[in-house]
Amino acid sequence: MTQQLIEIAKVLHTPLRLNGKPGDKVLIMTDTQMDPLLWQGLTIAANSLGMHPMVTIMPARERHAADPDAAIIAASLDPSVDLVIYLTSTAMAHAPFNEAMVEAGKKFLLMEELTPAMLAPNGPAWADYGAINQLGLKIAKVFTEGDSCTVKCPNGTNLTVSIKGRPGRSIAGIPLALHPGKGGGAAFPDGEAHVCPVEETGEGIVVFDLTAHSVGALKEPIILTVEKGYVRKIEGGYQAAIWRDILKRVDDPLSYNCPAEVSIGLNPKVVPTGSMRTDKKMYGTSHIGVGDTVVLGGTCHAKLRLEGVIRHPEISVDGQLLTQGGRILLDD
Length: 332
Known about the structure:
With 332 residues, the protein is α+β, with helices and mostly antiparallel strands. The chain is 24% helix and 29% strand.
């Protein structure tokens, strides 16, 4: 066993302890674009904790929010499986099968787009998740009690949306049921507080300037024009063109829903790498969602889910400023 594999297995004890217990059957769902060291490390970590790991490997999906193979869906929903880990190169949280997981009361752990580098010492996997959750709960309370949210930034972002009646959540590697009495899970590495806004209320401009799904680190900003809760225009360079092409190929009007999520990153250990798995968790950033909201408790059942990151957002709720210049103002 290599030293790198030993170190990977060591840090992966954290999400397994947070989300499982000895005796649990753990299904690790991965694909051919993921580094094998990751599922091997998870298997070693699970065995050492007295769990029963099982691994399924499939071809990588063509896009985010696409379902895994039918056989893997069936295995994930098997009543004997206690925890399903999404160790995939595309995001699965908003895939149709995940709705079935929630309805069936299943527990899942999101580790999409993970790389061995993210698990290196002093990286995002080594953050104080208890402290992250305490800060996340403060922000979630403001979201829950608020009526209107505004996201601004010197980069040109100026977006307003209603969040009235929508719960804020702290997402900090700890199991969370997104719907009362149903299934749910966590992510790893993690660290965000978010709210799912009211559909068809978004108005303004969103400028992603750090990272975005399907294109990675941004060479030029991706600029979204949002009217009546839908993206009406996508501008920028070749990466914006990739987004336009993805949405055109999906051919689903609901996939233009925006904002599908407003989130504040909480993890102080994140350094941008071009991967959404960690970049969107970076302390003081914000990621904005486009498309599906059903898993988060919304009403938009879209085929697609995309997200992008704003590095230095100024987020306010009912006039109370929460973030500015890379700082979280509730963090005392």
